[in-house]
Amino acid sequence: MEGKVRLTARETDVLQLLARGCTYSQVGTELGVSRHTVASHIKSAYLKLDVHSAAAAVMRAIELRLIGVAGSRGRRR
């Protein structure tokens, strides 16, 4: 993957919550948005991260240090 991947703050929040094991519904409740809005954010992240699933998006975001690993004090950008 070329260039630097830039996620929006909301995409980052969604991925961080998914990494902690939250469902789309739980993420929506936590962020005060609908499950469908969560799905929209994650699909946008798929395109930016060049992946095809939420699990792959979380893993790629961790690899690129865009989100921290659940339970760690990883640096968040």
Number of strands: 0
Principal-axis shape equals globular
* Total domain units: 1
Low-confidence stretches: 73-77
Tally of DSSP helical segments: 4
CATH architectural group: Orthogonal Bundle
Strand content: under 5%
Radius of gyration of CA atoms, rounded to a whole number: 11 Å
- CATH fold-level topology: Arc Repressor Mutant, subunit A
What order do the helices and strands come in, and which of them pair?
Layout: H1 9-19, H2 24-31, H3 35-49, H4 54-63
Descriptive report:
- By secondary structure, the chain is an all-alpha fold.
- The protein has a single domain (9-63), classed as Winged helix-like DNA-binding domain superfamily/Winged helix DNA-binding domain (Arc Repressor Mutant, subunit A).
- The protein contains four helices and no strands.
- It has helices at residues 9-19, 24-31, 35-49, 54-63.
- Helix 1 crosses helix 3, helix 1 (9-19) crosses helix 4 and helix 3 crosses helix 4 (54-63).
- It starts with 8 loop residues before the first helix and ends in a 14-residue tail after the last helix.
Outline of the structure:
The protein is mainly α and 77 residues long.
List keywords for this structure.
57% helix; single chain; Arc Repressor Mutant, subunit A; 0% strand; 77 residues; mainly alpha
